[in-house]
Design a protein that fits this description.
Number of strands: 7
Strand content: 5-15%
Distance between the termini: 55 Å
Length: 520
């Protein structure tokens, strides 16, 4: 509000220096506002709501950009360039912002006795600390690339509209509004697709869309309607790319350092904006590239990023594609999902009714699961590279003593690394829909550890095309799409629980499933 009041005086005095000062102050205020805005999100919502909260935040932000650009033009026309009307309007919006901010729930300070900060030194210290967490650092670099990408695209959209489609400079500015609308839609979709999870599999998917849309602006025919569609795809893909990055940073960063990390992330991101300006200048002025050619170069750069994200997050991408397939083919309900720890190790012990039980469990968790698989399936030549990438642990009843010891060692190491490990303790897929006797092999995995055992019952899968209900799996067409399935997670059991006790708990969850079906 103070900056807007200063702007009013600067306009009244027709002071160009004053107006540049106001512009600088507005940017500085935004730099202070950003880390606070994103930093407070994990304090206001639970971990399972981070993706949805960030999707709404990003969607609302870009909706505000669209409305702000539109209202600015409208104000200019209605006021006949009378700055006083515009000034009073801006003062009104500032007051509304203050009033709405008063509704934000107060949170306890992360640091009770903050020390005086020396920005440059603290920035270096934060970057140094981030090197210890490669995943967090890569997420921050990814967020910086988003602003680099967005700034570069915005710079090139003006000449694209003027030189390729004969639009005026003002009309060309509306091309960015199409991209902003796409970002808002993509952000909303990211929240819907993520659900309760921070869905990192959206990052490579968004990067693929960003690459294709940029390359398409150069490779496809010079048609305004086609370009508008590609610009919308560019924005939508960017929203899919950005939301999980922000949610992951908020989730991963220590709470007492979150504000500082977000401020560092913001600083690095705006370095990306400066780099985008310089890069666009070099391509346009030094190499005389057209807007379409510049977009093609940006697409190739993003293609490199896409390959990198697929290499870093292959299991997350595969998990997300599995999630999409499961959501299309199955109506999945979970009960007691809060019994699975959000961090730390756990051994998941489930019944085995179909060939896709592992995929169904994967679709219920944002955490990566290391599945135990029969060695004969693991050794399939075409599938083995995927299984290795997913960290599958092979075992078989006829394994040698050395192989069995290697299995236990690998499973224990996964638990020591704080992974979820899942084993189907029946040792085979049910041929009659009934629960078979649990094998005791999993007892050796958690012996003399504090790892909790989570009993799981997968209900409703018997009768699907991937079960043996109709004879050989996939022998008939599906009768219902989506097929209803319910997964029940029991309360954690101690690590010294016997196979009989775990089977009893899974069986009781099965009875709960039947009772739930009868009551509905």
């Amino acid at each position: 509000l103070g900056i807007v009041l200063l702007a009013t005086f600067a306009f009244a005095a027709a002071s160009r220096t004053g107006l540049y000062l106001v512009l600088f102050l507005m940017a500085s205020q935004s730099a202070l506002f950003g880390p606070a805005k994103y930093g407070i999100v994990p304090e206001l919502v639970g971990r399972h709501q981070l993706s949805r909260a960030n999707s709404l935040l990003e969607g609302a932000t870009y909706l505000a950009i669209i409305l702000g650009c539109g209202l600015a033009s409208t104000l200019a026309q209605l006021s006949a360039t009378d700055y006083q009307i515009a000034a009073f309007s801006c003062i009104g919006f500032s007051v509304l912002g203050i009033l709405s901010s008063r509704k934000i729930e107060k949170t306890a300070p992360a640091v009770t006795s903050p020390k005086t900060s020396r920005s440059c030194r603290e920035l270096r210290e934060t970057v140094s600390e981030l090197r210890a967490d490669n995943h967090l650092l890569l997420a921050i670099v990814g967020a910086a690339y988003f602003l680099f990408f967005g700034a570069f695209a915005q710079i090139n959209l003006i000449p694209l509209g003027i030189l390729s489609h004969g639009l005026t400079q003002e009309q060309s500015g509306y091309l960015f509004l199409v991209a902003a609308l796409g970002i808002g839609i993509g952000s909303y979709l990211a929240g819907k697709l993520s659900g309760r999870n921070v869905e990192l599999g959206l990052i490579p998917l968004g990067a693929i869309g960003m690459s294709l849309s940029c390359c398409g602006l150069f490779l496809l025919p010079n048609n305004l309607l086609a370009h508008l569609g590609l610009i919308a795809l560019l924005g939508c893909s960017s929203g899919l790319f950005l939301v999980p990055l922000h949610a992951f940073i908020q989730m991963r960063a220590p709470r007492e350092k979150l504000g500082r990390i977000l401020a560092t992330s913001s600083f690095i991101s705006w370095l990306g904006v400066l780099a985008a300006s310089g890069f666009a200048y070099i391509l346009r002025e030094q190499f005389s590239y057209s807007a379409e050619q510049s977009f093609f170069i940006l697409g190739l750069l993003t293609c490199g990023l896409t390959l990198l994200t697929i290499k870093i997050l292959p299991d997350f991408l595969l998990r997300f594609l599995i999630l999409l397939s499961i959501r299309i083919g199955y109506r999945l309900k979970t009960h007691g999902a809060e019994n699975v720890p959000s961090e730390g190790p756990a051994l998941l012990v489930a019944n085995h009714t179909s060939w896709i039980d592992a995929l169904l469990l994967t679709a219920t968790q944002q955490r990566r699961i290391r599945f135990v698989m029969h060695r004969a399936i693991y050794n399939k030549r075409l599938l083995q590279p995927i299984f290795k990438r997913m960290g599958v642990i092979p075992v078989a009843a006829n394994d040698t003593r050395k192989q069995k010891l290697e299995f236990i060692k690998t499973a224990r190491q996964a638990i020591a690394d704080d992974y979820l490990v899942c084993i189907f303790a029946e040792g085979m897929i049910s041929r009659n829909g009934m629960l078979n006797r649990f094998q005791s092999g999993f007892e050796a995995i958690v012996k003399r550890t504090d790892c909790p055992i989570i009993p799981i019952y997968i209900g409703g899968v018997w009768g699907s095309i991937f079960s043996y209900a109709n004879g050989k799996p996939l022998s008939k067409l599906p009768q219902r799409i989506p097929f209803p399935v319910a997964i029940h997670f029991g309360e954690p059991l101690p690590a010294d629980s016997s196979a009989e006790k775990v089977q009893q708990q899974v069986s009781e969850l099965g009875h709960t499933h039947v009772n739930t079906l009868q009551s509905t």
